[in-house]
Design brief:
The complex is a heterodimer of chains A (about 350) and B (about 260). With about 350 residues, chain A is α/β, with parallel strands linked by helices. Chain A has twelve helices and eleven strands. Chain A starts with a strand and ends with a helix. Chain B has about 260 residues and is of the alpha/beta class. Chain B contains six helices and 15 strands. Classes of the chains: A alpha/beta (about 350), B alpha/beta (about 260).
Chain lengths: ~350, ~260
């Protein structure tokens, strides 16, 4: 069902939602960029439509709502543990098609890969997704080639046009709310991009032999293992467990999980000094193949959703899309070597 | 809601068996099903967690053989006396004893690689009639590094045991040399049907499996166990992932046909 709302009407909808949910959307963090006087667009709680950034891509994805950067699992004393409380409110997340496709990837890891993750599940059950339309492709996006430029399943679709908000509502519980605050009921068809400037081609015939390709050597020197590509990626799900204790009472503390990165030193370290994938090229190979090869082997679809944030953020101008496009030559290279 | 797998439970340390200066076995209370080759995430609040293999299964207890190599294990060694441990698990697939029943079996291990397979060795030691022929080849750095030395005495009575060290100095209780040197001495009726378990450092496993294949072992008759960083133990954190496989979920025990395909 389609609705048209003016800003005041939509802000009243947001106000109603805020009683039950925290509403998250891409917003501007003034001065939050990498350098002085630069800003950052990332996800944060919003109260008015004016706070939402519609015309630019967010530097970070929505995933920090479902997977907080640092999440307390439980509190402990020396002989007792107490589970961290449930969040009282659910969440409404405004996100684009690539990111909503990424939710499927997060679910695959946290709800299906082995047993369900307790902390993810309790948040996930209380989340509603609002799709933001993409009228045009942003720089470095390659969602079309990844098949993630559109999505059917959402609670509501929203686009901002000429000062008005157009909504396609799929959530029966919100019907009355939208009806009460709308100024019209036009048919609303979601906008999605059908063409990106950046293209990728994932070749058939990738085998484990591709680990021996020379293509990975380039990244030994180019990549500086900062891990930014992992942190901005909506589908990177890895974390590390950490214990901390309180300085004013050393017997009390908490166990947390914090985001981790397969590109950063220490990710594979084992007790006694062993570690795997020491070279940055090996880490790059692991990450690239996880996104466009081995995740699909396990789950039936690729992990990467083509949002291009990794390309946007890399301080060394490494293009993940280019990495994918080099795989074809690498497949030929290793198959020729096998013949020799 | 699913159960909260991250919350550890308290266990009581029943006994501590000292093997070397840095390797002890902690016998802790545990009621529940557990298999050799599975692991627990053992933790000390404030210091963190570490994945530790099950090295023995008793009546209401499990043995955890721990090497003092990091922050968590250091703390366990310092404060174990009369104390308790937090742990969660067991995780991983473990060894399936049925794979080895009625067959000629060789277990080849290096260093602490003996821990995850000790349950298998113990089982067939007390059920000798369930294997046709059994050999244990265990390699350590020096005689001082030998784990489970009292168990070796019992095992030697029940099976063919080759205990070897890299450097024996003046000790005459052990043979010397790499475990691979003793593969040519295996005397089985039918290498085609014999089964093997290999656990140890990556290089040791590589050359040991190579040696076994040269003797006529079939790839699908060899099992290996991998060591990786396993933060969560339940397939979420990603640290132990290699190719499309999660060592904590799909392993750590693999048939060699699958295991040899994994690449980091």
């Amino acid at each position: 069902m389609g609705y048209c709302l003016d800003k005041d009407g939509f802000n009243q909808v947001l106000n109603e939602w805020s009683k039950e949910y925290i509403v998250y959307a891409p917003k501007l963090f003034k001065g939050g960029g990498n350098f002085s006087d630069t800003d950052r667009i990332r996800y944060g709680e919003i109260h008015t439509v004016e706070e939402i950034i519609f015309d630019r891509k967010s530097d970070y994805s929505f995933k920090e709502v479902l997977l907080p950067l640092s999440q307390t699992l439980f509190f402990f004393t020396e002989n007792m543990v107490k589970e961290a409380d449930f969040p009282k409110k659910g969440a409404v997340i405004l996100l684009r098609s690539c990111d909503l496709n990424a939710v499927k990837r997060l679910d695959a890891i946290y709800l299906e890969n082995g047993s369900e993750d307790y902390y993810y599940k309790r948040l996930r059950d209380k989340v509603k997704f609002i799709l933001i339309g993409c009228e045009h492709s942003f720089e470095n996006c390659f969602c079309v080639d990844m098949g993630t430029n559109s999505v059917d399943s959402y609670d509501a679709y929203l686009e901002f046009k000429n000062g008005e908000i157009f909504v396609d509502n799929h959530n029966d519980a919100w019907k009355t709310l939208f009806t009460a605050h709308s100024i019209g009921t036009p048919a609303v068809i979601p906008s999605y991009v059908t063409k990106n400037e950046t293209h990728v081609h994932i070749p058939d015939g990738i085998t484990p032999d591709i680990a021996h390709s020379k293509m990975w050597d380039e990244y030994d020197s180019r990549c500086i293992n900062c891990g930014r590509c992992n942190f901005v990626c909506p589908t990177c799900t890895c974390f590390t467990m950490q214990d901390i204790f309180y300085t004013d009472n050393g017997k009390v503390g908490e166990r947390r999980r914090v985001w981790a990165s397969c590109m950063v030193d220490g990710f594979t370290d084992v007790a006694g000094g062993g570690s795997y994938r020491k070279k940055n090229g090996q880490r790059m190979r692991f990450k690239v193949l996880h996104k466009v090869y081995d995740f699909k082997k396990r789950n039936g679809y690729h992990m990467c959703v083509g949002c291009g944030r990794c390309d946007d953020i890399c301080p060394e101008y490494i293009s993940f899309a280019n990495s994918i496009n080099k795989l074809g030559a690498a497949v030929k290279e290793v198959s020729l070597n096998a013949v020799k | 809601m699913p159960s909260n797998e991250y919350i550890p439970f308290l266990t009581e340390i029943r006994d501590v068996i000292k093997h070397t200066d840095i390797e002890y076995t902690f016998r802790v209370t545990y009621e529940g099903n557990v298999k050799p080759g599975q692991f627990f995430e053992v933790s000390i609040p404030k210091y963190g967690e570490a994945p530790i293999s099950v090295s023995g299964i008793g009546n209401g207890t499990v043995d955890l053989t721990i090497r003092r190599v990091g922050k968590v294990t250091h703390e366990i060694f310092e404060h174990y006396v009369g104390d308790k441990l937090f742990m969660r698990g067991p995780y991983g697939n473990g060894f399936d004893i049925d794979n080895y029943k009625g067959k000629e079996l060789v277990v080849i291990v290096g260093g602490t690689g003996l821990s995850p397979v000790k349950g298998i060795v113990d089982y067939f030691c007390s059920h000798r009639e369930e294997t046709k022929n059994m050999t244990l080849i265990a390699g350590f750095k020096t005689p001082k590094d030998v784990l489970f030395s009292t168990d070796f005495g019992l095992w030697k009575k029940k099976m063919n045991v080759i205990l070897t060290v890299d450097n024996a100095e003046n000790d005459t209780t052990c043979k010397t040399g790499l475990v691979t040197q003793y593969i040519p001495q295996l005397n089985f009726e039918n290498f085609n049907k014999a089964v093997a378990i290999v656990v140890g450092p990556p290089m040791m496993m590589k050359f040991t499996t190579q040696g076994l294949l040269e003797r006529g072992f079939k790839e699908n008759n060899i099992w290996i166990s991998y060591e990786r960083k396993m933060c969560c133990g339940i397939g979420k954190c990603g640290h132990c992932k290699t190719d499309d496989t999660y060592i904590c979920l799909d392993g750590p025990v693999f048939n060699f046909v699958k295991g040899r395909q994994l690449f980091d």
